[in-house]
Design brief:
globular; 7-stranded mixed sheet; 4-stranded antiparallel sheet; 11 strands
């Protein structure tokens, strides 16, 4: 099983990006999907999560700006990021949790927001 994340890049403050993460291989039933980020010198932190029934949770710092969604048929999770700020600069990682196989992480995609 591999998770492939994409969509990162360089954007000016106030801009938008959409991240995608797709699982390949026999991952089975996916419970919670989520996005995490790690800025230089900081610990990895949760950005947003979405359960199999669509319940979402966001970090306070991104509420109202980011939206997480999922497509179960495509084994894909998305993160729409609007009104990006320099503090959002980080490597963003996707994570998918399964009941049988445990958790899987993507390789990370870099988001850089310039002021």
């Amino acid at each position: 099983v591999q998770l492939q994340a994409s969509g990162g890049g360089l954007v000016q403050a106030g801009g938008s990006l959409r991240l995608s993460c797709t699982a390949s291989g026999s991952i089975g039933s996916i419970a919670t999907m989520g996005w995490y980020r790690q800025a230089p010198g900081n610990q990895r932190e949760v950005v947003a999560t979405i359960t199999s029934v669509g319940r979402v949770n966001y970090a306070d710092s991104v509420k109202g700006r980011f939206t997480i969604s999922r497509d179960n048929a495509k084994k894909t999770v998305y993160l729409q990021m609007n009104s990006l700020q320099p503090d959002d600069t980080a490597v963003y990682y996707c994570k998918m949790g399964t009941v049988i196989l445990g958790d899987f992480w993507g390789q990370g995609t870099l988001v850089t927001v310039s002021s």
